[in-house]
Write a structure and sequence with these properties.
This protein is mainly β. The chain contains no helices and 10 strands. About 0% of the residues lie in helices and about 70% in strands. It has a 10-stranded antiparallel β-barrel with strand order 1-2-3-4-5-6-7-8-9-10. Strand 1 (about 15-25) and strand 2 (about 30-40) form a beta hairpin. It comes from Microbispora bryophytorum subsp. camponoti.
């Protein structure tokens, strides 16, 4: 299936990415985590997105699941982008941003929470393709703290998108 032509600015994301990074926040100890992200398409003008993470021990073995999120990435005119994400913890986010070459910067426009979701107010994400690897950094404002670093990772492409 051909990729929709509107997706050209973000087509570099397509595929399965795996790697590791570091998480931390004032409400938690810093730790290493593993991650898998899959960007797919169905021929329409959006990418599907799934991410799952797990805590890693000192040897790099999986200890337990951490977070998961799913959503859609929609490119707009003039390399603007909209990203809709849903979390099983009762949080839904809409990010707005811009694509510049192989760099994507996103900021939350809307955050909606269920009554049982944690106090989460804003996010800022930066994704970039560097030497063939997908690098990203994620800042968040949550639990009464201002926007600050929460996670960063380096992911390697481990597979193409399977239709």
């Amino acid at each position: 299936m051909d990729v929709h032509p509107d997706l050209e600015p973000i087509a570099f994301l397509l595929g399965r990415w795996e790697g590791a990074g570091v998480i931390g926040y004032p409400t938690m100890e810093s730790a290493n985590f593993g991650q898998e992200i899959v960007f797919g398409h169905n021929g329409k003008p959006f990418l599907t997105y799934q991410s799952r993470t797990w805590l890693l021990d000192a040897e790099g073995a999986k200890v337990r699941p951490l977070s998961t999120e799913t959503g859609f990435w929609r490119i707009q005119p003039e390399r603007q982008i909209e990203v809709c994400l849903a979390h099983p913890t009762g949080i839904v986010e809409i990010y707005l941003g811009e694509v510049v070459f192989h760099k994507i910067e996103l900021r939350t426009d809307v955050v909606a929470r269920t009554t049982t979701a944690k106090d989460y107010n804003a996010g800022h994400r930066l994704y970039g393709l560097v030497n063939g690897n997908l690098m990203y950094a994620y800042d968040m404002a949550a639990m009464g703290h201002p926007l600050q670093s929460h996670a960063s990772a380096e992911l390697k492409r481990t597979g193409d998108f399977d239709e």
